[in-house]
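Reopening: structure tokens for the manganese (II) ion complex, inputs below.
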Amino acid sequence: MLRFVLADLHLGERPNDVERFRRVTDEALSRAVAELVLLGDVFRTLVGFPHFWDETVRTGLDELCRLRRSGVRVIFVEGNRDFFLDEPALDEFRDAATACHSFSAGGRRFLLEHGDLVNVRDWRYRVWRRLAKSGAARLWARLLPGSLARRVVSGTERRLARTNFDYRTRIPEERLARTAEVHFAAGVHVVLWGHFHRPWWHTEGQRLAAVVPAFGEYGVMICVNGESGDLTVGEAAGAHFVDTPLHSWYLERDGTEAARNHHGSHDSSSG
Ligand SMILES: [Mn+2]
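Re-run output (same inputs, fresh job):
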């Protein structure tokens, strides 16, 4: 069995990004993928109530519905742009919504989480997050009239951009490495995070922790072979998808990303 893992799609942020995502869902269907894991931040914002959804969100969700009808499991791992994903309105678009997804493949234990809580020193973000995802916020979101709801979404996007919690600042490498080692010590072999957008990885013997590159920027996904547990990077090349072993794909891009991202082509977004 095969799994696709995509992170930080931010659909709606770039022209034709939903089309690009449709190529992935087509590929998932043609390769009989068993599970699609969305590692957080699928849209600019996703709230679990339909009156918050715009055209992009509805179109993207329809793609997930199409996958599920063909037997693909769809897993939402909650990101910092995701709110109340366990609401019944999303039932037809996902099989599970979770803060942390895990599975075994090829005898290796995998753990997948968005990663926005790795940088525990960012207390401002943690306070904001607790408020925004509280029971009171959920009730308020449920009762809010539609037109206002969609305006609140854009306000939320601006607020996210203002927090000092920003992937464009450097990746908290020591934090990630330490968090990875805690997971390794608990028996996890492979840790996958989203959120940080840039390819970064850390190994300890056969154990691996890696940031899945943002689909929005890199147009790639990670494919996990269920029999071998091997990881490849899947990339659309012309009409086809090309699979590259994770190690070689990451090695090729190590170190060049900082310069590229310095020019910040998308100032209105964060994390
Ligand atoms: Mn994020």
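Residues 260-270 have pLDDT under 50 and may be disordered. Residues 8, 40-41, 79-80, 114, 116, 195, 271 surround manganese (II) ion (CB under 6 Å). Marking as resolved unless the reporter disagrees.
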